[in-house]
Amino acid sequence: MKLLDCIHQQLGKLKNPTLKELGIALKRFPDLSDLIQPFITDPDQFPYGRNVIYLNEHVEVLVINLPPHVETAIHDHGQSLGCALVVEGKLLNSIYRFNENQIERAKAYMVQKGDFLISPQGLIHKMGNPHKERMISLHVYSPPLFNMSNYKDQQRNEIITDFV
Questions:
Q1: Rounded CA gap, 110 and 124, in Å?
Q2: Among residues 51, 68, 140, 141, which one has the fewest Cβ atoms lying within 10 Å of its Cβ?
Q3: What domains can you pick out in the chain, each with its CATH number?
Q4: What is the DSSP letter of 38?
């Protein structure tokens, strides 16, 4: 079965899914190592590859290619919630919170190949790849991404302008 067929079968009929429903749908996917290859894009507009491969009224699906030693901006997902599956490599997911009107990292953890990460509505995070190999992941958001925000990294004192 091809990747777009899997996506349509598992996600195409979902209407306003919960995080749990998105996670269950992603867990039903077969091994994506080969199926995802045609959808991996090189960095272009952002320092990482970002390819929207499926979009309907309720769900958006992206493939992210995070090269070695690259990270996203600190961002939220607007009104969307999401779930992602690491298909290749590992990523460092850093969670942020506000403390006296400044953003600060609250925690960080590694997500291994085959593991999931979730993004409840309102979560602020960044994904980084501190490794020598690329990281490939499949992301599902509902509703489709809109009105995302980026945040200034207080520890680095710089603004990063890209987003997932």
A1: 16
A2: 68
A3: 3-151 (2.60.120.10)
A4: G
The overall pTM is greater than 0.70: yes
Strand order in the sheet with 60-66: 49-55, 60-66, 135-142, 81-88, 116-119
Place of tokens 């979560």: 123
Q: How many residues does the chain have?
A: 164
Residue with token string 């961002």: 75
Which residue type sits at 22?
Answer: L
Question: With bands split at pLDDT 50, 70 and 90, how would you rate the model's confidence at 106?
Answer: very high
* pLDDT tens by residue, 14-59: 999 999 999 999 999 999 999 999 999 999 989 999 999 999 999 9
Rg (CA), the chain: 15
